[in-house]
Specification:
Elements lengths: L10 H53 L10 H8 L1 H8 L11 H25 L1
Helix pairs in contact: 2-3, 3-4
Length: about 130
């Protein structure tokens, strides 16, 4: 006959493990709202910038200076948005039809944002 050994486990370590798990869950639940709030703040800023850009593109479209949609006539729309930024970023080498240059677009977007921020500061000073 084979004898089997019965090993009793102490109940104290399982209680400690349970307590650690509960504390871990509580910490996560307490920190989660802060994480969500910080992410939503950043996304609101990005969304506001995109909405401003869309509004500016719509203004250029309504002026009638650039025929077609922005995706088809990118150079014209960028020049309409900010002639100084367009000349600085794309002046020497304009985009070809269908070309996507993400690096230069990011530079253009930053230049445009900086220009808009400067305009807002100047308007505040005038008031």
């Amino acid at each position: 006959m084979v004898k089997t050994k019965v090993i009793q486990q102490s109940s104290i370590p399982s209680h400690c493990a349970l307590a650690v798990k509960i504390l871990f869950v509580l910490i996560i639940l307490l920190l989660l709202p802060e994480l969500v709030q910080s992410f939503s703040r950043n996304s609101r800023k990005r969304n506001r910038g995109r909405l401003e850009l869309k509004a500016l593109l719509k203004e250029c479209e309504q002026k009638g200076d650039c025929p077609g949609v922005p995706e088809e006539n990118v150079n014209c729309f960028y020049d309409c948005l900010s002639p100084s930024c367009y000349d600085e970023i794309y002046g020497d080498n304009p985009l070809e039809p269908g070309e996507i240059d993400f690096d230069r677009y990011q530079k253009f977007e930053k230049c445009l944002k900086d220009e808009r921020t400067q305009l807002k500061k100047e308007r505040r000073k005038q008031k």
